[in-house]
Amino acid sequence: MHDIIFVMTRANIQKLLHRLLNICATVVLAAATIISYRLPADQITLVPYAEITVPLVYGVSAFACALLIFRLENVILETAVLIAQSFLTVWTGKEILGIFLYSAMIIMLLCNKFFRTRGTIKTAAFIVLWLVILPGIIPYGRARTIIAYIVSILQILFYAYIYVSLKDLLVPLLPPQFHSAQDKLPAQGSVLHVSQLQELGLSERQIQFILDSIKGKSYAEIAEMHAASTSTVKKEMVSVFKAFGVKTREELLFILLQYTIKE
Question: Which residues of 156-186 are buried (b: 16+ CB within 10 A; e: fewer)?
Fold first, then answer.
């Protein structure tokens, strides 16, 4: 029961933080809209009709973030806001903020498993897009342009290092038995089809119990759904634990949450 509460609590905390993030973004962008309208910046920029375009983009982005407070799963809208703000901040001389926003967008898409399908094409598209955005800093001088490119490369290398380090740190936490079972599973972060679970010697009933467990169902709830006793469910899950080389339901969920499971 404790592992179910842990997973559900983590999901609730994630939604709360996501909602708070969108609330803060709405407030900041609304303030930026007012400031850019009342105090337009008098500087060189590639943004056409900057005195109108800048507050308009800020305003539309603020409205979009307000919608995202209630529609947390709208990844497309969230991505559009971050791309627009990356363009705007870089092209109005706030290149460091623009680099951060673009990096934040990539991290957000990674968390939403955006790159799991056609990863090479999508990665190439975002690299090309960034190469289109970054030259907007050229009017502000050669030195700032060079620094912006260096900072961009630095951030890419930094996030790649963090990703690889976290992956290497988390996998050893799993019991040694899992590493033998891992040979029969795809790489973490990929799609795991139900048919692949059968390669571990699991029955259809055990696989269904696994899918219900991922959804946060308790043993008693699973037993009721499948007209079985709670002790039967527990016995079947013990067999599942052995197949995955784990000892607890929490360890099993830790493994399975790294995949996109498709029936």
Answer: eeeeeeeeeeeeeeeeeebeeebeebbeebe
DSSP-derived 3-state class of residue 229: coil
CA–chain centroid gap for 18, Å, is 11
SS3 204: helix
Residue 93 backbone phi and psi in degrees, to 5: 90, 10
Contact 229, 216 (CB under 8 A): no
User: 191 forms bridges with which residues in the sheet?
Assistant: 260
Least-confidence region, from 145-159, 185-199, 223-237: 185-199
Structural contact between residues 100 and 73, judged by C-beta atoms closer than 8 angstroms: no
Angle at 133 between CA 56 and CA 30, to 5 degrees: 25
Mean pLDDT, residues 217-222 taken together: 88
User: What one-letter code names the amino acid at 246?
Assistant: V
Q: Say which amino acid occupies 129.
A: L
Q: Is the pTM of this model over 0.85?
A: no
In angstroms, the Cα distances linking 260 to 150, 181, 255 are 35, 18, 11
Q: Which of 124-133, 164-173, 209-218 reaches the highest mean pLDDT?
A: 124-133
